[in-house]
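Fold this sequence, please.
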Amino acid sequence: MQLIIGFIVLILFFPATIQAESVRSLVESGNKAYEQGDYANSLDSYDKAAEAEPDSAIVLFNRGNAMYKQGEYADAFNVYEQAAVKAMEDNDPMLEAQSRYNMGNSSFRKAEALSRNNPEKALDEFNRGSEYFQSAVKLDPKFFEAAHNLQVSRMAAKKVEELIRKQQQQAQQQEKAKEQIKKDLEELSEQQNEAAEQSESADQEQQQSQGPGSESDQQMDQLAANQKEITERTKSVSDKLEQLNDRSNPQLSDEMAQEHIKRALDKQESAREDLEQKRPDQASVDQKEAAEELQKALQQLEQGEKEEQKKDSAEQEQEGSESKGQDEQQLQEERKNDQNPPADSQKEQTPSGESPEDIINDEIESRKYRRSNGGTGYKPVDKDW
């Protein structure tokens, strides 16, 4: 996977006024600790500066950087979002673009951590990050890093989408296999009960004939052969369930079902030996117990299926509640945007229908022009930092 470009770091200062002197000192102290890699102390300084200057987009931005460096991506995202809102209110599109860019990076890092165990949420985070990279480009059309990361984030989202499709296909195959196992267990339980009835009949006939005979011996041999066949089918079902659990995270109900099947196999083997030893009365008892164990295994699988459905419903309900909260938050942000629209000059710079490739190519040409004319790169923000 192509890597994203690192997040933006700004060394931000305040005007040297009497009122801001303490805040300026705290920011300088935080910056010094940050440059030394002491992110915990840098965050402590920025936190104190934020208490003295809570409406400063500059302080919020630096706080987000310190959190990001400590791997606190969710908290960093929230602070960058606050910085973006403050920058927008201050009519500072460059700082707003940089804040939204770092919001995108925070979402990307969160998505990376989620991609293996929760690809659905990872996909949401990748898409979320792409939106913020795109908003950064709209605020600053020559923001090369944001355009690059927008492409990388979209590529990562496509890979996660493919992973989700494969997992869904695998889940469907596993569900189909488990349904067949349940069907086999139902049939085996019925066959085992029928075999128990046959053993009871054989025992009655044996008692009436007053002891084993040639016809009785042949009947016992046939019943033993039938029992052997049922046992082999049960062993096959046990192997299928074990293989199914090896390919996925087995539920406790699946493991308990497997245990009941093993008990059934033990009883089936005992029943076969009883029939070979011409003891149909004892064989009948073992066969009935084997049938009961097979039914218990079936019930465990069905119970696990119901529990999984309840779990899925609860997760969907929770995700719906979280999504509603995010929608409300986004609506509030959109209302703020309507109340504080960016300057007209920024609207004119917003690309219309440009792809990330177009943006990157424009930036390459722009950099060539700046080098040939002694340019210095990005335009500085009109703010005394």
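Confidence is low (pLDDT under 50) at residues 11-19, 334-385. Residues 170-207+217-309 form one domain.
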